[in-house]
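Slide 14.
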Amino acid sequence: MWAAILLSVLAMTAIVALRYLAASGIFAAVTQRVRPGYHARLGPQIRREIGWSLASAAIYGIPAGVVAWGWQERGWTQIYTGWNDYPLWYLPLAPLLFLMAHDTWFYWTHRLMHRPAWFRTMHAVHHASRPPTAWAAMSFHPWEAITGAVVIPALVFLIPIHVAMLGLVLLVMTVMGVTNHMGWEMFPRRLVHSALGGWLITASHHQRHHEEYRCNYGLYFRFWDRLCGTDRGLSPNA
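Slide 15: predicted structure.
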């Protein structure tokens, strides 16, 4: 049993690491093409970001690997594979519930990590990326990585979700994590400044967090920032 769990953990660590390298590498290449010179003189910073991110991948891989083993071998989770196991209308609802729950957890833990003592211990590593790059998406101190690594593994015990919709959640999490750190806005202005865009977090919103620190704490949605008065809008520099 323990050997199987270890293999599952190693496999999930490799998957998380490769997913990070592929996604960040693709969007870093796009940045280099669209914003030539943005990465100039950032070589040492980017190497640090990659190092911290690969360490984070190992931390994310531990609970993910244990849960993956438990799902396949013991049926521990609420992940299902049959398209008719739940009503079809529930298929798109489950990812939204996951993203909302993840966003809530992220907002409040992120805001907590901006308290001085917590910031120095857990969050300063992430903010050492000045300016942030696509490689900074998982550049976390291990303590911060733990707070992020437990969310999705915990939610699969609480909220039923089709395995394909879980894959969609992971895709959204990966793409938004990377694109929000690119330092420039890749999404069309008409979307970012639309009624819908006013509730979504993109690079221009998160860039302001990296510039001013005490605002714009959300991950996917601006709901908690707006409700708690911490939304300061978009950065003019992204």
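Speaker note: The beta strands are 79-80, 161-162.
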